[in-house]
Amino acid sequence: MMELHGIHHVSAITANAANNYDFYTKIMGMRLVKKTVNQDDTSMYHLFYADKLGSPGTDLTFFEIHRAGRTYTGNNSISLTSLRVASDEAIHYWAGRLEEYDIQSKEVELQGRKVLFFEDPEKQRLMLVSDEQNEGVAAGIPWEGTDVPAEFAIIGLGPVKLTVPELEPTERVLLELMGFRKKTEAQLADGTNLHIYEVGQGGTGAEVMVEVEPGLQRERPGRGSVHHVAFRVKDRKELERAKKILYAAHLPNSGLVDRYYFQSLYFREPNGILFELATDGPGFATDEDPDALGETLALPPFLESERKSIEARLTPLDTKKK
């Protein structure tokens, strides 16, 4: 089986990079650690928000698609992204902060953890989860360049939720190929049943929750939807081994893709959800000063010769630290 170490990043869709930047940096207090472009379509921004260092396992990223319509939620989707905070007290802090910005939220308990459900302005489905009882994958380092107190800061990605019409095909890939193990089952207050799996050291940074909804239509993605979830592998050698495992299981995949900041491989599990495997390094400080991450448009070397034409197609986005 593969050797995965938790969630690496989650990539979603926004229709407006400037508004997205304002929300995730000014309200959510996250650090923009990389302002770059979608390497497969350089006409759109790719924004990475993370902890202080841009550590793997803390990245929530967005592709800007100007004409993205609304999302019609449904099956065969990544239907919830969660963000880690250090304590139950932080959950209470965020309930109050979101209320100040007229953002509705709902605080409940899930797996013995305090969690807070809410949506961003584009109806991105989000959940904050308390790490107070966490014993698994370590969290990231708080970003202090914000008015959010460090003890309440977002410090990484928590469990992602998949919504599928049939459990067995997805479960088989998680358990037999990706090295996940079944942790438990849980039920939300609305009666939603969740099958919960963990990998590596486990804990909030290494979980996948699967919701089975056979009667739902397939999700029609748009702004506020999730494009893919990426899982951590140590290095290129492990990525090569994962590729062989996928070939042996007759699962089509992208082969290795050089993203410069990490190496990747993409494949769809049987319910059609896009998974990425991504290496922990070399990281976002490869081409920028760690103290100035995200302040300018960063392009990998293989796109640098196209900088002028790329910048001409992008709407200017001021991310300089004031």
From TrEMBL:
<feature type="domain" description="VOC">
    <location>
        <begin position="156"/>
        <end position="280"/>
    </location>
</feature>
<dbReference type="InterPro" id="IPR052537">
    <property type="entry name" value="Extradiol_RC_dioxygenase"/>
</dbReference>
<protein>
    <submittedName>
        <fullName>Glyoxalase family protein</fullName>
    </submittedName>
</protein>
<feature type="domain" description="VOC">
    <location>
        <begin position="6"/>
        <end position="131"/>
    </location>
</feature>
<dbReference type="Pfam" id="PF00903">
    <property type="entry name" value="Glyoxalase"/>
</dbReference>
<dbReference type="InterPro" id="IPR029068">
    <property type="entry name" value="Glyas_Bleomycin-R_OHBP_Dase"/>
</dbReference>
<dbReference type="InterPro" id="IPR037523">
    <property type="entry name" value="VOC_core"/>
</dbReference>
<dbReference type="InterPro" id="IPR004360">
    <property type="entry name" value="Glyas_Fos-R_dOase_dom"/>
</dbReference>
